[in-house]
Amino acid sequence: MASPVESAGEKSAVLIAPVTALEFLGEDFLLTGEGPILSVYSLHPSIKECASLNVLQNYCIHGIRPSRKHQFGETQFNNVISSESSVLDKEDIIVFGGKGVRLVSFNTGAQCLTLIGPLLELQDWVLDIHWLKGQPHPLLGISLAHNAVLLLDAESGNILSFYSCVEMCLLYSALMIGPNWDSLVLVGGTVFNQLVLWKPTGTKLDGQSQVERRLLGHSGVIFSLCYHQKSGWLASASDDRSVRLWSVGTLGGDAGCGEESPTCLRVLYGHQARVFCVKLAANRVFSAGEDGACLLWEWGGEGKVGRSFRGHRSGGVRALAVSEGSIYCKEGWMATGGADGGVRVWRVSEEKKGSEETETQLDLGFTGQGCPKVVRLVDEGKSNRVLVCTDQGEVCLRQDDTWDVIWQGGAEFQSYCVMEITSVQVQNSDCNVWVCAVGNLNGGVQVFLVGQTGVGVLLRAGEGKIHSVLWVKGLFGGSWSWSLLASGSEGLVYRWTIKVIEDESGLHIQEETLLPFLLPPCAKRWLTAAVTLSQRKGLYLCGDRRGSLLLYNEREENDRRTDLQDQETENKQLGQGGPLSPISTLYGVHGKQGVTSVCEYQDLCYSTGRDGSVRILTVEENVLKVRRVQRACKGMEWIEKVLFLGSDVPEVQGKLLNERIEMKKIDRESASIAETRFVIVGFHSVHFVIWDPHRQEKLLSVVCGGGHRSWAYKRPIHTDTDPQAHTLGQGTLVFIKHGAVMASHSLASTENDVNGYTLKEGLHGRGISSVCHLGSLTKTGQFPEFWEVFVTGGEDTTVGVLAVSPKSGTVKVLSVLTDHISNVRALAAIRREETKGRDDEMNTFSISSLVFSAGGRAQLQCYQLLICLDEQQGQPICQVTQIAGHRLDEHWERKRNRHKTVKMDPETRYMSMAVERNGTDCVLLALGCSDGAVRLFRVTESSRSVDMLWESFYHQRCVLSVATYKLNKSHDRTLLLLFSATTDGCISVWDLTAVLNSKATVSWQGPSAPFFSIPVHQSGVNTLAISPRREMRQMEENVISLASGGDDGQLSLLHVKIDQENGDVSLQLLSHCTVPLAHSSPLTGLCLLSPTLLVSTSPDQRLCLWSVNSDGLCPLKVLFSHTADAAGLWAWLGQEGGAWVVVCGQGLQLFQLTETEMDKLNETVKRTVKEEERKKVIFPHISRTKD
Fold first, then answer.
1. Cβ atoms < 10 Å from Cβ of 244
2. Where is this region: Disordered (predicted)?
3. Which of 254, 728, 1051, 1120 is deepest in the core (most CB within 10 A)?
4. What pLDDT shows up at residue 1168?
5. Residue 331 contacts by C-beta under 8 Å, 6 or more apart in sequence?
């Protein structure tokens, strides 16, 4: 859940910001700081958010210090607070950040937060606060950023004492140690990359304390410090990517500053970027940094990494906390807070150690004859049995650490064979047996029971080589059973149904021959993957080695008998019982390297290939259609399959449906809309990788040598029915390498102590560049629902689809799109038809929109989004259909005579985008580009194409912002104007009317220059907003208000009249007003809520509301935004009065201007309008008197 904010100016605002502070209260509660919001999560009996409160107002929380804190084996010395709190079930907590300090009380019984006293604002930044003994009230030791310390009364806020160090340098981090003020020791990390230790009450020189110890060694500033009293260790985390451990002895109390000559025990290098946080425990070190990893260092073995915890997107980990259990090396909690706004917790313990970082791969000691070629797991996830087929025609089974030959093939199975296994249920029994199929070079396929090799049958699949054998479960003869597919020569795929029957003599295999499939002609003509579609009777989805996807229709015998007359011609050509040809083909869709897997889940089909992509498909009227493409991480081109996940939300633990027959229990309409979360399994160079595309992180990485080998993956035992992303990294990979059968770690491992939980899901970790509001979802009734839906584009190259519930503060990530290769700078959307749900009485609405995203590397993407409310769960679900994509470099490569033209700059970025509909099927996109061009594209939804219609390099400098305005004139005449703004502060206007509804848009040349241009700002114009002007309470369509914001902090307003004579368009400037210092930094976002109300934002973190009138701009209200580095905003009027504003930057914040607040603003605007009307009546009268 996100953090709801309450204040006088806004209501139920939702804040998503970097998590900058974490602290545990025992083993039961976790405190988090996100912006100024202090939140409390309950960890027992279930994980949930139980309280949230705005504590620091305009400051960001950087530290949380409970009064009963047990830190690294040392109980704090506030006995008064501890005894009183234990009786009242209350905990006093000091929260600080920036220059703000505040005392808060948390009631553990009622699970609520209460403010104690006012917000204290100091004159310097606070780096650390330490609870001290004091009578009758507790005292606080506060370390300041300029190497000073003050003593503060916690309740009254009075300063009792103040000391500074003789070195008045800037500190990046500080840590205070000691039971009372007289024995307090300060450890500071200076801007000079040093650690200094001094006592506020120690040796004085000119009234200032002296530095008593100085630790050198870091080559970067120190971000975090931690001290372990029992061992006398001090840990420091630095900008130089290292963690250093120092032996300083006992600090504080009678020991003072510890050892005379502190030594550096170890330097720990393992992070790939800056290290922000460090925590100490007995013989263990926890560290987290900008690379997004939290490392647990084991003290033994030269301080190597024991475990790596990852759970955040790009941007890194900003906060780290460990509970008492983790500190004492018992089972406890560890929590991380990320720059993406997410919070993750793990259970960690001492007993079970090891991960892929520390364990070596195990040789399973294969003892059979020949070289192993194929490896498979029997009872995957439930036992340790491994099945191997060798080049000598042997099948060996590993059980109880011993290898046994269970089947020996003849000479025809030597030198080459393929093998697949499956579990088959015995007819009229609940017993399952494992069946193995082995194919050879001569068209033979041996099928036998694993463990009972005497029960078997030899099948014939032609006379040539068997390229592959596949097991497929489907509906045959009215019952679910397994079929065996064998790819033979000439593109024929032979098929049999395989059943296991038990009679008095034992088990038997019964086979029935089916009509074969015929593959399309190609060089590599064999099948690599197949699945039956459970919701569509008789349909097979197959993939071949050429990379094509094929759809076959199984013809039942009874249907063929009744349709003999209709099939007479075909029977003459193919003969009765001829092979079946595909009814739908996507030729070479996965490239020339082939399809690796196909599967069906919740009425959607998924295919993978060695082209680095997962394709999500639908079958409409027996035609295969690609809904969208999901790519893996960069460099991961060899994808083997996808694994579907259960829900990753603690409150709702989803269950994986393993059997297709259970699909009938799912609402087919909802299932066809929603896409289930999945992870991608494949190879990245020499590593076997499990990649989570939703969180953009690797869950498992095993060095195995690459994809040209047989392998099998064993899931953790406890995740078979409820797979979670964070647990798949604990699975085991079994593979063949250099003639040996290897395992990533022991098959008998049941390790499940590293269980991660997502308390709060994160968004973009590197900042949000743009945001676009799609609409609202509402549901009335006994359990009403209200969701606002957004699309966000980030510097992490992803586009996110979010649903926000303002009432509860819940933020749900509906989809993450990863098609961009660079920063997503601009978003635009246009609504399609909005349809109601099936149950009109429940008022379930859906949103259907075309969404366009553009950014770096001159890349443009178009998606069709359908978002609706799931009627069963009341949660929004999203369907993404990829319409088209475009890149300028690829467009240039397809040009004729391109050698005569100058190649486009590969670093070109799309800076801004505007969208207009052109007819029922086409959309026009205008883009401002960094290479000085203004470009116009046409997107056709039906043909899924993007065409560039026009480009102009008139500006010769970066075009920062574009906007469009469409004016409907008489006689069905429509004007389309394009406004472009550049880095020189000029705004230009282009006439694009000719392109509207033109049948010759491809040959349309477009204007060579703008027909109107005016200098407005001293530097770049970052944002534009256009609206028809409201004059005398009436709208004037041909008079527009053009607002602009620039790098100079200036807000400008132009009133422009549009005239047209003899087909030529002209503009008349009516007025031009400016507010020179509207913001103290460049304006980055403007939006007109109405023709008379303007909203602006800036990195100065102010959200300003302005009244727009003929005389200019009048400030109405200023709100403070907790979103740093604001990059854009979007504002809209609510359905039931009021208005909403969303600001994006380093996070996202949603404001609601209540209906009462909007009424006050409207009254202010009306008063301004009345004054304008009175002036316009009086002014002519005065003029005539003077005459």
1. 22
2. 558-580
3. 1051
4. 54
5. 325, 347, 348, 349, 350, 753
| Identity at 574, one-letter amino acid code | L
Residues 6+ apart with CB under 8 A from 409: 393, 394, 395, 417, 438, 440, 446
- Tokens 């008139």 correspond to what residue? 954
Backbone angles phi, psi at 1148, to 5 degrees: -155, 135
Residue 539 amino acid letter: L
When mean pLDDT is compared over 382-386, 393-397, 836-840, 1109-1113, the highest value belongs to 393-397
Q: What is the largest CA-CA distance in the chain?
A: 125
Q: Residue 1000: which pLDDT band, with cuts at 50, 70 and 90?
A: low
Count of residues in the chain = 1187
Q: What is the DSSP string of 1106-1127?
A: EEEETTEEEEEEEEE---EEEE
Residue 20 tokens read as: 């900058």
Residue 664 has what pLDDT? 39
- Residue type present at position 852: F
Q: Are strands 213-215 and 697-703 parallel, antiparallel or unpaired?
A: unpaired
What pLDDT is stored for residue 82 in this prediction?
30
3-state helix, strand, coil in the chain (%, to 5): 10, 55, 35
Residue 491 backbone phi and psi in degrees, to 5: 75, 15
The residue among 439, 459, 619 whose CA lies nearest residue 532 is: 619
Contact 368, 387 (CB under 8 A): no
What whole-number distance in Å separates Cα of residue 607 and Cα of residue 619? Answer: 13
* 873: three-class secondary structure by DSSP: coil
Distances (CA, A) of 748 to 372, 382, 715, 731: 22, 10, 12, 11
Does the pLDDT of residue 512 top 50, yes or no? yes
User: Which stretch of DSSP H or E encloses residue 1155?
Assistant: helix 1155-1186
The helix (run of H) or strand (run of E) holding residue 1167 is helix 1155-1186
Q: What is the pLDDT of residues 355-388, one digit of tens each?
A: 434 446 899 999 988 899 999 998 755 667 899 9
Rounded to 5 degrees, φ, ψ at 726 are: -75, -15
| 3-class DSSP assignment, residue 83 | helix
**Percent of the chain scoring above 70 in pLDDT:** 82
Q: For the ranges 144-153, 346-355, 525-534, 1009-1018, which has the lowest average pLDDT?
A: 346-355
pLDDT exceeds cutoff 70 at 860:
yes
- Would strands 678-684 and 638-644 be described as parallel, antiparallel, or unpaired? antiparallel
**Is 902 buried (19+), middle (13-18) or exposed (0-12) by CB count in 10 A?**
exposed
Other Cβ atoms less than 10 A from the Cβ of 458: the count is: 9
What sign does the dihedral 427-432-438-439 (CA atoms) show?
Answer: positive
Beta bridge partners of 530: 542
Mean pLDDT (the chain, rounded): 83
Q: Return the pLDDT at 1024.
A: 95
| Residue at 895: amino acid letter | K
Question: Tell me, what's the pLDDT at 779?
Answer: 81
CA distances from 800 to 600, 778, 820 (A): 25, 21, 12
Residue 578, pLDDT above cutoff 90? no
Q: Tokens representing 959?
A: 């075009």
Asked whether 965 and 973 are in contact (CB, 8 A), the reply is no
Helical residues (DSSP H) of 703-837, grouped into ranges: none
Contact of 643 with 723, CB cutoff 8 Å: yes
317-337: average pLDDT: 82
Partners of residue 584 on adjacent β-strands: 551
**b/e burial code for range 920-938 (CB count within 10 A of at least 16 → b):** eebbbbbbbbbbbbbbbbb
